[in-house]
Design brief:
By secondary structure, the chain is an alpha/beta fold. The protein has two domains: about 220 residues, D-Maltodextrin-Binding Protein, domain 2; about 90 residues, D-Maltodextrin-Binding Protein, domain 2 (3-Layer(aba) Sandwich), CATH 3.40.190. It contains 13 helices and 14 strands. A five-stranded mixed β-sheet has the order 3-2-4-12-5. The protein starts with a helix and ends with a helix. The N terminus is likely disordered.
């Protein structure tokens, strides 16, 4: 199994991206005072629903003398690359990206906080029976090799002792719409993807949630949806700016978490999807997660064991994890 997983990971290393614990909303500290002079903060992001709080923070940041410049990326891996190249001040990446960066010898990224969590289900094509993990044997399953959801899926298979070569992995490149098209055409029996592309086949009637095939709760990866990270230079030299961004993001995140309707509307605005689609896609998502340091360490160790990264960096993670921005935003 390790050899099979390594083959997939090695072929997709350039696309590598993607454990969150949902916490109850806590009181925020008062809005920080405006900076003495205006500044610009460049942030990389992906147009996915759980990052919808991005739609609400620009005005808050302007009140603190910060001009937000958003740069869209299709994949976490691309945002990670730009962050490590000092092209971005901050970015949303996958929790695995911190371990990947360290294993590649980079020391330019600092993890700050998680952004949300959700259950993850294999999406089956209507008419294909997926009642238990044995049912994936012989099936064609579309995956995004090296992606955040692939990490979750592969880790779950490992923990359940399901051979990775018991099914045919169909590598799909590009955005989530490509997965839905492959499922709709009948090219594959199931897909392992992300929202809103998980809900779309269900809403449109050609797919279903295989709820006995939940893969978001593995011990080594967890129900992660993403990580807010900063360039190490920015986090150090412009700490006051990063602190204000985190405050604004958490404020927006908690506002949406408190109102399913507002979250659905922000989801639709952010992704361009119809409101009804966004409302369904938003239902399983819990905004307000934080990545636990011990969980990230376990991720790093598991990815090394699976052959995804060539070096176990679990012992180095703590030096590149800084949750003080979040605790300060919460007045702790």
């Amino acid at each position: 199994m390790k050899r099979a997983l390594f083959a997939v990971a090695a072929a997709a290393l350039a696309t590598l991206s993607g454990a969150l614990f949902s916490l109850p909303a806590l009181a925020l500290s008062p809005r920080p005072a405006p900076l003495a002079a205006p500044v610009t903060l460049t942030v990389g992001y992906q147009k996915v629903g759980h990052l919808a709080p991005m739609t609400l923070i620009a005005d808050d940041l302007k009140k603190m003398n910060i001009e937000l410049k958003l740069v869209e990326f299709v994949r976490y891996a691309d945002a990670r690359t730009a962050l490590l190249a000092n092209s971005l001040d901050m970015a949303t990446v996958g929790p695995a990206d911190l371990a990947i960066a360290l294993a590649q010898g980079s020391r330019s990224m600092v993890g700050l906080m998680g952004v949300g969590s959700s259950p993850k289900y294999v999406i089956g094509r209507k008419g294909v029976s997926l009642e238990n993990w044995n049912d994936i044997r012989g099936k064609k399953i579309a995956i995004a090799p090296g992606s955040a959801v692939w990490f979750q899926f592969a880790a779950t298979l490992s923990e359940k002792n399901v051979p990775y070569n018991s099914f045919t992995a169909v590598n799909v490149q590009g955005g989530g719409a490509n997965f839905d098209q492959a499922l709709k055409r009948g090219d594959v029996d199931a897909i392992v993807t992300w929202e809103p592309f998980e809900s779309i086949p269900v809403i449109e009637g050609y797919g279903y949630f295989a709820k006995n095939l939940e893969y978001g709760q593995s011990k080594s990866v967890g129900a992660e949806l993403g990580l807010l990270a900063a360039n190490r230079v920015t986090a150090t030299a412009r700490r006051d700016v990063v602190q204000r961004f985190v405050w604004a993001y958490v404020s927006s995140m908690e506002s949406l978490a408190a109102s399913p309707q507002k979250f659905a509307e922000a989801y639709a605005q952010f992704t361009g999807l119809p409101l009804e689609t966004s409302r369904e896609a938003a239902k399983p998502i819990k905004l307000g997660g934080v990545v636990d340091l011990e969980q990230v360490k376990r991720q790093a160790a598991a990815f090394h064991k699976l052959g995804v990264i060539q070096k176990d960096v679990s012992g180095e993670i703590a030096a590149f994890w800084d949750n003080s921005f979040l605790t300060t935003a919460r007045g702790k």
